[in-house]
Amino acid sequence: MITRLLQAGIMAAWAVFFLWLVAFGQNELARLLHPRLWWLVLCGAFILALFFVVVASRLTEPHSAGPLRWQWPSFVILLVPLLYFVPMKTARFDSQTFLSRSTSIEAPFEPPVGEQDSEIVPDDAALPSQEEAEEDDASFGRIALNPQQYDGKTVEVACQTLNDQRLPDNLFICYRFRITCCAADAQPVFLLVEKGAAAAAPANDSWVKVKGPLSIRQMEGMRFGLIKEATVTPGKEPIFPFVF
């Protein structure tokens, strides 16, 4: 009976945890799973609740699972992932994660010879409409992955910062992570930002809002979006830190 009682307790603990994530832990869930897949967490809670009911209904039936001293390690292992949730609440992807998951950027990053800066007139009508975006998170992903579609347009994005010593002093990296399923498959996407000559570079991993005209730079056959003459202001971490 004690073995089945422990089994039922573990299933109940996981079911309650999943329900809590969806109902009250959405800030934490947003850093783990694509929002379109949150229904999986609810399904998991429902299935575990069914298992709990089945096991609880058999508490008084004979059960030959062997001595409890041989069973308790498996019960502890099933509860260990719940303990990881405590440090996960404060854990964040940062510049070290960016560097470990991305292709390095080689310096120097120089504009093509003979290129002249020209006045860029913003064309808001050419930018994606608000209805097309999943907040401004999706906008960052579209701009970073398809910068040629925004060439010459004024853009505004929220991102984290990285000062890479391989880049010129007036450039820093503006990055976020893109997921298709969950945090495990997160891959960095980024833009380069040209700050003003007198402006100090923001601290690594700080959240900022960056606004300015976008141009395209090519290096080793790859295209990078570059926000020129950018206005950089402090920002807050979005509810959904990933882009989709």
Number of domains: 2
How many helices? The count is 6
Biggest sheet details? 5 strands, mixed, barrel
Looking at the overall shape, the CATH architecture of the largest domain is: Beta Barrel
Silhouette: elongated
Helix-strand makeup class:
alpha+beta
**Percent in strands:** 15-25%
Question: What is the H/E string?
Answer: HHHHHHEEEEEEE
Question: What is the CATH homologous superfamily assignment of the largest domain?
Answer: Nucleic acid-binding proteins
Indicate the mean pLDDT.
81
Integer-rounded radius of gyration? 24 Å
**The CATH topology of the largest domain, please?**
OB fold (Dihydrolipoamide Acetyltransferase, E2P)
**How helix-rich are the residues, as a percent range?**
25-40%
Describe the overall structure.
- This protein has a 5-stranded mixed β-barrel.
- α1 packs parallel to α4 (about 70-90).
- The chain folds into 2 domains: about 1-90, no CATH class; about 95-244, Nucleic acid-binding proteins (OB fold (Dihydrolipoamide Acetyltransferase, E2P)), CATH 2.40.50.
- The protein is built from 6 helices and 7 strands.
- The chain is α+β, with helices and mostly antiparallel strands.
- The protein has helices spanning about 1-25, 25-30, 40-55, 70-90, 95-100, 135-145, and strands at about 155-160, 170-180, 185-195, 205-220, 220-225, 230-235, 240-244.
